[in-house]
Prior knowledge:
The complex is a heterodimer.
Chain A: E1 5-7, E2 10-13, E3 19-24, E4 31-37, E5 44-50, E6 53-57, E7 64-68, E8 74-78, E9 87-94, E10 104-105, E11 109-113
Parallel strand pairs in A: 2-11
Antiparallel strand pairs in A: 1-3, 3-8, 4-5, 4-9, 5-6, 7-8, 9-10, 9-11
Chain B: E1 9-13, E2 18-23, E3 32-38, E4 45-50, E5 53-56, E6 61-64, E7 70-75, E8 84-91, E9 106-111
Parallel strand pairs in B: 1-9
Antiparallel strand pairs in B: 2-7, 3-4, 3-8, 5-6, 6-7, 8-9
Amino acid sequence: DSGVTQTPKHLITATGQRVTLRCSPRSGDLSVYWYQQSLDQGLQFLIQYYNGEERAKGNILERFSAQQFPDLHSELNLSSLELGDSALYFCASSAHLGGEETQYFGPGTRLLVL
Amino acid sequence: LAKTTQPISMDSYEGQEVNITCSHNNIATNDYITWYQQFPSQGPRFIIQGYKTKVTNEVASLFIPADRKSSTLSLPRVSLSDTAVYYCLVGDGGSSASKIIFGSGTRLSIRP
């Protein structure tokens, strides 16, 4: 158990809909990362937040947005969903910033868009 | 940004030592090299991290040559449970607004 929690574990929805994925980082971790992993694909970095502020942006679509709240939990919002958005979405956290920081991953949310 | 290149897949047998090499020709001065292990439908798990030379922990060793343009993850005496995808990640932990690239990983299959 990494200490990172994600809800829901599974999510089934229809095209055009909007969903919110939630992540609670390890206690004390200030940095949260979001990743997308499609079937048999590698991890695609989406976005990172540190202590409530956006720090780095990867291949995140304009239909997707995220935020980190004062209690440090984070939400990833996916809107106007398409079939291709079906994937595993992982959240990870690390204590601070810096090259030596390692990321602790949550169990993921499996999203299926029908 | 430092892109990584790894073999797509590797096969080995129980009890053997497995070495997985990752190329990162454009590694920056502030970049660390981190390896993660991922089982199907689970989040990646940290294995080992290094900056230069050699690092060893209870799970693996990481060899980094002086030019830091590559690194080798060494798994001693593998077992069936080591069958997983292994990712090499090069980055500065997000201390600057840099992209984080995991790459496609190496799918390691261990046979009895």
